[in-house]
Design a protein that fits this description.
76% of the residues lie in helices and 0% in strands. The longest helix has 22 residues. The protein is mostly helical. It is built from 2 helices and no strands.
């Protein structure tokens, strides 16, 4: 995944959040966990020696 795709995923998440798609705390937590995992994968790609 590249940074542009990650930012697109964040924008999609934010749009869904504003639309009220995450009406259950578990759904919100799952979406946030997915974004966090994608962000950490990107960090590992950019900084492989951390």
């Amino acid at each position: 995944m590249n940074a542009k795709l990650l930012f697109l995923q964040i924008e999609i998440f934010f749009g869904r959040l504003q639309e009220g798609k995450y009406d259950h705390p578990v759904a919100l937590a799952m979406a946030l966990e997915s974004l966090a995992n994608m962000a950490w994968d990107e960090v590992d790609t950019v900084y492989p020696n951390l």
